[in-house]
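Ticket opened by: R.M.
Priority: normal
Category: complex prediction / small molecule

The reporter submitted a protein together with iron/sulfur cluster and asked that the result be attached to this ticket for the collaborator who will pick it up next week. Submitted input follows.
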Amino acid sequence: MLCLFNGFASEVFAPAFPLIGRRKSAGPRLLKAFAALRRILLAISVLFTIYWVLRLLGASWGAAHSVVATAELSIYLVGELLAAMFLWIAFTGRGYCYYCPLGTVLAGIARLAGQKIVTDRTRCIRCGACNEACALSIDVQRHAEKAIPVVDTRCVGCGHCVDACPTRTLCYSTAFIDRRRRVRGR
Ligand code: SF4
Ligand code: SF4
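Result attached by the on-call engineer:
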């Protein structure tokens, strides 16, 4: 899956961001706050979507229309676009992915598709390169040490942890890829 908004942009501009120091990992409290913000923005986006679908179907709320349109534009420009740009520069190249409502939907689809990062405890040398590479502050190393796959709603499937691992401990997979590997293994 390719997110054309922050995903594509962050990959293209990765060498330039962040400009202020090293990329920072988010602590548990910040992650909790982002998770709550994610749910709130998703709920707001769903309400806006329902509103516009009803409008297209002919429903009319008179003057309320301009209020809704202004509110939506403000949330998009200030709450999302400006915040996303700030997080790009100051926090991490994928800061917006922490609370993006579209990302939440894509994460749900990824979960349905069985997306995961497969780990192999026998190969892990605990170097921490995977955690360093993950812009979404996922503790990939802990998963590798416990030999459990990374299945996380924050994971955007960028594969940077896989590329960063010097011992090829990690491997990107989905239910479809798993099936193909099983068929080929026969
Ligand atoms: S693929 Fe790896 S680096 Fe990318 S978000 Fe998922 S865990 Fe983090
Ligand atoms: S990068 Fe690979 S070897 Fe290093 S801690 Fe992560 S999984 Fe283990």
